[in-house]
Amino acid sequence: MEGMLQTTLAVLAGVCLYATVHHLWVGLQQPRHALHLLFALMCLLVSGYALNQINLYHADSPQTLVQFRRIQQTLAGLILGLLPWFVALYTGMRTGLPCRLLSLAFAGLILVHWIRPYGLYYDELPMLQQRVLPWGETIVDLSVGGSGTALAMASAAVALVLAHAVYGCVRQFRHGVRRRAVMLAIALGLFFISILLSIAVNAGYLNLMHTLEFGFIALVVLMSATLSGELHASRSALVASEARFRILAEQATDAIYLHDTQGQIVDVNQQACRELGYSRDELMRMRVADIEIAISPANSMATWATMQPGTPVTLEGRHRRKDGTMFPVEVRIGLFHADGRDFALAVARDISARKQTEAALRASEERLRATLDNTPGVAVQWYDRDGHVLYWNKASEQLYGVPAAQAMGKTLRDFLYTPEQFSGFLDAIAGIEQQGMPYGPAEINMQNRQGEKICVIYTLFQIPGNVNEPIFVCMDVDISERKRAEAELQLHREHLEELVRARTDAMDIANRELEAFNYSVSHDLRSPLRAVDGFALALTEDYAGKLDATGQDYLQRIRGGTQRMSALIDAMLQLSRIGRKPLKPGSLDLSAMAHEILAELAVAEPARQVAIDITPGLGAWGDAQLLHAALANLLGNAWKYSAKTPHAKITFGLLQQDGQTVYFVRDNGVGFDMVHAGKLFGAFQRLHHRAEFEGTGIGLATVQRIIHRHGGRIWAEAAPGQGAIFHFTLPVQPPDAASANPPPGLL
C-alpha cells in the first residue's frame, strides 16, 4: 500500500486543476459572472494545497517540513478567506462587511504565520516523527505540540466562516432556492467533518494523515458539479428559450430586428422580410441606416448611447422597402448584453393604418371645430368631470363675453357661475356619468361678463366611448328675447281676454237686441200682413160678384205678395236662428236622409219622373237637424231646377279630392252661368226670375252657414242648360267644443 496516499492526492489535485481550467473558461466567457472566476481561484488554491501535502508527507528534515507546513497553512488561510465571498455570491447575499472582516482575519493569521519563526502553531522547532497509517503506509509528520492561543484564534476564524456559510444556506432555503442550499450544506458538512478529523489528528487522538485537504477537495468537487449542472441547465433553458423566442418571433405580426450598437443587423424575423421585401440573408448584410430614413446613423448611435439595459424606449420612424416605397413605423428598442457584446432588440410596427386614422380624426376634429365655431346662436363647450373647460366656441364668447383663451382650463365658477350654480353643474355631470343619460333641456338665469341678465336653455351630455377621460358637452341657447316676448305676449293675451270679454258682452247685448228684433218681425210685422191678407180674402169672398176680372186679379196679387212676404220673414228667422242654435253633433247616415227627402218631394209631385242615384252608406258627423235642412235645400234645388228637363236625374255621392272626402249633389237641370257664381250663396240673391222658378233666395245662404258651422266648405260648378253640381265637405272626426259651439253672433 506504499504510495497510495501520494497517488490519491495527485489524482485529486488533478481533479481540482481540471475544475480550475473549466470554471476559468466559463468565467472568461461571462466576465460579468464573477462566481465562476472566484471558484476557479479556489480550485487552484485547493490543487496547490493537495500537491503541497504530497511534499509535506515526504520531507527529510524539520526545517523543510516547517516550510511546507507554512505553505499549507497559507493556502488554507487563502481558501478560507475566499470562502465567505463565494458563499455570498452563490446565495445572493451582499458581499459586505462580514466578508471583509473574515478575509482580514485570515490575512492576519497568514501574516502572523510568516512572522513567527516556526509558523503559527509552533513556539520552537518541532521534531520529525514517523507515522504508520492503518493501511501500512509510512508518512513524515511533526511532533505534537504548539501554541494553544494561535490554534484557538484559527479555530475561531474557521468557526465564523462556517457560521457565515450556514447563514447563507438558511437564507437560500427560505428564499425557495432549496437545491442550491442543500448542495452547499452537504459540501460544507463534509468540509466541517474534515476539519474535526484534522483537529483530532493534531491532538493525537487518531492515527491518520491530515484530512483538511480532503475536505477542501470534497467542497471543490461537490460545488463544481453543482455549478456545472446549473450551467448546463441554464444553457439548456437558454436554448429552449431561444427556440421559443424564435417561434414567437416568426409568428409575431410585428417586425423584429436584432442588431449591434453599430447598427449592423444580426437577425430578423419573417414579418420583417415580408414588410421590407428583402430576404433574411439580404437583411443580415445590411445596417439599420439602410432601411430607416427618419433617423440618421449619428442619431441612432446617440440614441443607443443614452439607453440603459432594461429600460426600452419607443420611437417613430419611416422604413424604406426594397422597391423604394416608404411607410411609417413605431419602434420599441431595448438594449441587452450577450456573449460579451451589447445588442439592441427592435420591434417595429407598421402604423400606416393608424396614421391614416389619426389624419382622418384630425380632419374630422377640424371640421367639427369649424362647424361648432361657425354655428350661430348655439354656444358649445366641452368639460372634464371636474368642470374644467376643454373647448369654448365663438358663440360661447359672444353669449358670455369671455374669450376662449381666458376660459380654457378654468371652471365656470372662476368667471361665470355662482358657487351654488357651479355645484349644481357638477351634480349634473356626476349624474350623467353614473346613469349614462343626458341632462336637460333646462333653463338657468345668470349674468354674463358685461353684467347683462340672460336666460339660457342648455343640454348636457357625455361623448360616448370616452371612459378613462370622459368629455361632457354643453350646448346653450340664449332665450332671453324669447322670454321677453313671452312676457309681452302674456300681457297682450291678458288684454285680449279683456277685449274678448268686452266683445262677448257686447255680442250678448246684440243677440238680445236681435232676439227682440226677431220677436218684432215675427209678431209686429206679421200682424199687418195677416190683416192685409185677411181683408183681401174677405173682399174675394164677399165682393167677388161686384168685382170684375181685373179686380179679382188685383186681390190675388195682394194675397200672393203677403204670402211671399210671410215666407221671406220665415226664411230670415230661420237663417238668423242657425247662427245661434248650439250644435248637437252625432253620427249620421246621409244616404238614408237623402232618400227620405227625395221621397217627400216625389209624394208632393207624383207626376214627375226623376232618376235618383244615391251612393249607399254615406256617413258623416254633425247636427242631424241642421244637416237635414242643408241637404233638403240642395236636393230641393236639384228637384226644382230639373223640373223642365225631359229626363231629369239627381245624384248624391262622394269623391276624393286632394286627400279629402267631398260630398256632392248633381242635377241635369237648367244650370247657371259661373259669371254670377259670386252671388250664389248670398241672401235674397236669385240667378233665375221668380216667374220662372219660385223661391225666397235664402236657401243656399242657409246651406253655406250650416256647412261653415260644421267646419266644412261648399262650392258649385255649373253651365247654362247643363245642370249644376254642389260640392261640400264635412269633418270625419267630432269637432272640439270650441268649433262646435262658437259664441252666438260670430257666424
Task: Please describe what this structure looks like.
This protein is α+β, with helices and mostly antiparallel strands and 747 residues long. It folds into five domains: 7-234, Rhopdopsin 7-helix transmembrane proteins (Up-down Bundle), CATH 1.20.1070; 254-350, Beta-Lactamase (2-Layer Sandwich); 365-473, PAS domain (Beta-Lactamase); 485-556; 583-740, Heat Shock Protein 90 (2-Layer Sandwich). The chain has 22 helices and 19 strands. The strands form five sheets. It has a five-stranded antiparallel beta sheet. The protein has a five-stranded antiparallel beta sheet with strand order 9-8-12-11-10, sandwiched between helices. Strands 14-16-17-19-18 form a five-stranded mixed beta sheet, with helices on one face.
DSSP strand tally: 19
Distance between the termini: 152 Å
Q: How large is the radius of gyration?
A: 63 Å
Strand order of the largest sheet: 4-3-7-6-5
Number of helices, counting only DSSP H or I runs of 4 residues or more: 22
Show unreliable segments.
Answer: 737-747
Q: Structural class, from helix and strand content? A: alpha+beta
- Largest sheet, strands/sense/barrel: 5 strands, antiparallel
Shape: rod-shaped
Oligomer: single chain
User: What's the architecture of the largest domain, going by CATH?
Assistant: Up-down Bundle
* Structural domain count: 5
The CATH topology of the largest domain corresponds to: Rhopdopsin 7-helix transmembrane proteins
Beta fraction:
15-25%
Just give the CATH class of the largest domain. Answer: Mainly Alpha
Helix coverage percent: 55-70%
- The chain-level mean pLDDT equals 78
